[in-house]
What does this fold into?
Amino acid sequence: MTRFSKRSVMKLAGWGTLATLAALAGCGKKEEAAPAPAAEAPAASAAPVAAAPASAAAGKLKVAFAYVGPPGDGGWTFAHDNARKALEKELGDKIETSFVEKVPEGADAERVFRDMISQGNTLIFGTTFGYMEPMLKVAADNPTVKFEHATGYKSADNMRTYDSRTYEGAYLAGIVAGGMTKTNTLGVVGSIPIPEVIRNIDSFTLGAQSVNPKIKTKVVWVNEWFNPPKETEAAQSLIDGGADVLMQNTDSSAVLQTADKAGKYAFGWDSDMTAYGPKAHLASAAINWTPYYIKATKEVLDGTWKTGPDTWWGVKEGAIDLVSISDKVPAEIKAKVEAAKAGLKDGSFSIWKGPIVGNDGKEVVAKDTVADDKFLKGIKFYVKGVEGKVPGDEKK
It folds into this structure.
């Protein structure tokens, strides 16, 4: 098992105050359940720190992971790290894994990737969108190393992409939100306005509207993946604006905790976050990266790894699910969630089937037309019911 090195580890008794939240801020299913509020999480550091490898035995495939946040974030990075641990358990002494946490998106990621290679890693996973260009550059210089990039769209002979259809989890959460809201106003704390995040906001709204056509959704952007104080502030702003059910596309549990304190409802994101706000928690849209990490690593081990096409798994493949649905949710709403899940699994239901209209009143998906993956990966608009403009599109 990989251990933390060159840093101290502190015990956190929950993220009850902004001061504690700030201590966690980084640069910014599952083998294990989400941590309790007292989960162990790393203290903030000035620069990314590599985890010490479990051993240096010769002959093992060395696999490295670059994380945008700390494994103790309770969400995105937590899910990736659980999958890394499950990979170790599955393949045992055939592999050796390590990770670097809180790697900024941008130039510093290139340095980290090159350092991983210098340490003998020949399979590298970059787990956030902003690593795409640095990884492409490093891949070009190291043709014998295999690179895997999460949520990206560019590839090379030795670099491919993988992703989870998180919008399916967002849609399922939307069904629950539509059935639980009293104000008909939902709120979403958005991270960075890329198609992935916009697609999740839209799908959440479509799910809610499938049970409650009166739904409107407010969005506050924080422009970071992991910044608990900003996430807290954004969540409170949405509550002050009338939202009584919140979703997030950020990496910490701050949104859920804020809703819990305010007596509102919210969802966990990326991992099961029940423990962080049990009174507010309606369900969690949880990602399971384990099947893909095992598949990719086995392909490197047996020599069958090859680039492309993109891997984009969802409910059908067990890569995304809505878990731990609260007893507060009525049985009829739970039944709607299960029906949608079943349809996604067997292909009889499509979330993005027309007619679908943008919030500017223009049709974006025609009646009876099912949007293809190319369309979904390029979404840069809000659907009807989402208030405001996508950042960067205000002049339209």
